Amino acid sequence: MEKKSFTIAIVDDETMFRVLTKKKLAEVMKKLPFTFYVQEYKSGAAFIKQKKVFDIVFMDIAMPKMSGIEVAAKYREYCPEGILIFLTAYDDYMKDGYKVNAFRYIGKQDEPQEFFEAVKSAVLQLQEKEQIKLQVVSGGEIFVSLNDIVYVEAQARSVLLHTKDGEVFPVRYKISDLTQLLEAKGFFLTHRLYLVNLRYAKSCGRKEVVLHTTETIPISEKRRHEFKVALKEFHS
Questions:
Q1: For residue 217, what are the contacts with CB-CB under 8 A and spacing of at least 6?
Q2: pTM above 0.85?
């Protein structure tokens, strides 16, 4: 199955820190089921000139000629929603960072775990905003946010999409098709008939998964251990 990919920009005037950030990203890629396409920029001016939109931007704050805050403000003119993570050793800029909707601040010398947590949180936010288009049995189409899907249930003649609002949509897919589509987006096949959004999984017993919606979903014995591992990793 093809991995979900994200585009990332590293904007830093110091070569050493661009290399260090890229190295940290390579380590993150080993732990997360995604592919990252990384592009480097040695100045804010070069970054802005291309006017490219990225899923995640790592931006050095203390750059010459144009600070990271100034670059971010210009970036927001054509990309209001992309995730901005500032690389800095200073707290003085944090107030200005909120003006450009900064997602996180990371110290350049922070521990790798801090970097990993920031990237993982950014990816989860991107996924929660992601919508997918699905064909419904009635013949139309729906656009649904991944964060709104609680679980998918296969019945004798249909596959049902259950949402957090209690709505149920019969869709024109096999559960195997939706598993292939969603398992890299935080979903887990607990049973041959049930695909669960890990965001809503609360706990796992011998034969069932308890959801935050108070519903219970069957889990097969052979999938139970793998599910517990996946749930722990998802929330770690």
A1: 151, 190, 191, 194, 196, 208, 209, 211
A2: no
